[in-house]
């Protein structure tokens, strides 16, 4: 089973306007499947194949000459030398949609685009499925616990694979292949420990010194490793909103995983029923809500504009979506029963924000919906309404 992806129309539009289209995202998010389906007339080359990669690196002109009519270059960060040669080719012929590149690491791709293909390439991001994409195929999880446990990576849903087994292989492959490519890690088990420690801090303020201490590495190493996790779309650091509502604001970012299933596996959660009372249920739910907001922005070809807000007294709003004309506060609660006190932080924040405050939202683990004290309350299954209302993630 192959589900339709919401970003498809934006990618096709970009291919009608730019000679190069780049689709990035984590491994196994469906990039290859999508670009092959959208561009069936283009030949396909996987640059992780040693022979193809050697040819591309040693003779880039000759390699590209074989694909003058266009080509899909999968995992293009494995041969970044090609990007500067692509510049000359597209400058001679600006025909749109000739070269489709994919990449699972931001470092090689983004630096190459900035240096060689600025103004010539459109950048798109494909994360794992959204709940709406699963629902369109009739395969959305019926329970919140199942959603958080399974995560949203396409192979788990396309092939109905066992999540625990799949994530074990995913992490092993990711650490062995991507991490070795990006940094020189002598002891990969230490990096995997770091990855698990990040999962344990999901939804918390980033403390590099704490991470470094727990893993027995330096502060600079922890910073470097966190950058690697961000570059390969495993985690994201959510920045605090700095609009001057209060002078006593928290300035550290918060750490989230881009897929709750991966984080759940790293936390040793081995069946969905454990998530009914697990202490990380709330942070995993927040991670999922954030990922849906990010996917909503990426699927529109836009840059996410989501933050959190917290002052030093501990008052916090989980997410603040900046829509340009207004700021939309959002609370994410994994509990299945609505509690009226949930509206209090939103009301306080809205008072501070004044005219800039948009309507507040609460997305939670229950099933009823409707306005409560000026706040729109939504069950988790209807998060698409929130994503559409926010508009730009």
Strand order of the largest sheet: 8-9-10-11-13-12
- How many separate helices? 17
Radius of gyration: 22 Å
What's the pLDDT, averaged over the residues? 92
Domain module count: 2
How is the quaternary structure best described?
A: single chain
Distance between termini?
A: 28 Å
Give a short account of the largest sheet: 6 strands, mixed
* Helix and strand composition category: alpha/beta
- N-to-C series of helices and strands: HEHEHHEHEHEHHHHHHHEEHHEEEHEEEH
Beta-strand percentage range = 15-25%
Task: Sum up the overall morphology in one term.
Answer: globular
**Percent helix among the residues?**
40-55%
Q: Give the low-pLDDT segments.
A: none
The overall strand count is 13
Structure, described:
With 393 residues, this protein is an alpha/beta fold. It folds into two domains: 118 residues, 3-Layer(aba) Sandwich (Rossmann fold), CATH 3.40.50.300; 260 residues, no CATH class. 43% of the residues lie in helices and 16% in strands. The strands form three sheets. Strands 8-9-10-11-13-12 form a six-stranded mixed β-sheet, sandwiched between helices. Strand 10, helix 16 and strand 11 form a beta-alpha-beta unit. Helix 12 packs across helix 13. The model has no long low-confidence stretch (mean pLDDT 92).
């Amino acid at each position: 089973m192959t589900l339709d992806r919401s970003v498809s129309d934006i990618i096709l539009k970009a291919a009608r306007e730019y000679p190069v289209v780049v689709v990035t995202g984590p491994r196994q998010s469906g990039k290859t499947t999508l670009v092959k389906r959208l561009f069936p007339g283009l030949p396909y080359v996987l640059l992780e194949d040693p022979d193809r990669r050697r040819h591309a690196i040693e003779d880039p002109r000759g390699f590209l000459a074989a694909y003058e009519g266009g080509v899909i270059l999968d995992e293009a960060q494995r041969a970044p030398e090609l990007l500067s040669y692509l510049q000359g080719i597209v400058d001679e012929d600006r025909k749109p949609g000739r070269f489709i590149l994919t990449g699972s690491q931001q470092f090689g791709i983004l630096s190459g685009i900035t240096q060689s293909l600025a103004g010539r390439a459109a950048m798109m991001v494909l994360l794992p499925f959204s709940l709406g994409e699963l629902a369109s195929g009739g395969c959305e999880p019926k329970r919140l616990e199942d959603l958080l446990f399974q995560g949203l990576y396409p192979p788990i849903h396309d092939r109905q694979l066992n999540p625990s087994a799949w994530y074990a292989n995913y992490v092993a492959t990711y650490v062995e292949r991507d991490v070795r490519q990006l940094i020189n890690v002598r002891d990969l088990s230490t990096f995997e420990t770091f990855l698990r420690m990040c999962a344990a801090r999901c939804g918390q303020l980033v403390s590099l010194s704490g991470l470094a201490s727990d893993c027995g590495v330096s502060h600079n190493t922890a910073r470097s490793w966190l950058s690697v996790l961000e570059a390969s779309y495993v985690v994201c650091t959510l920045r605090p909103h700095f609009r001057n509502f209060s002078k006593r604001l928290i300035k550290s970012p918060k750490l989230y995983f881009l897929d709750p299933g991966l984080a759940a596996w790293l936390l040793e959660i081995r069946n969905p029923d454990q998530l009914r009372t697990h202490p990380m249920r709330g942070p995993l739910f927040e991670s999922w809500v954030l990922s849906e907001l990010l996917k909503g922005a990426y699927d529109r070809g836009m840059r996410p504009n989501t933050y959190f807000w917290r002052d030093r007294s501990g008052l916090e709003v989980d997410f603040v979506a900046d829509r340009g004309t207004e700021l939309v506060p959002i609370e994410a609660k994994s509990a299945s029963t609505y509690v009226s006190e949930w509206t209090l932080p939103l009301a306080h924040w809205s008072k501070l924000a004044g005219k800039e405050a948009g309507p507040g939202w609460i997305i939670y683990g229950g099933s009823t919906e409707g306005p409560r004290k000026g706040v729109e309350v939504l069950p988790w299954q209807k998060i698409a309404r929130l994503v559409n209302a926010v508009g730009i993630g």
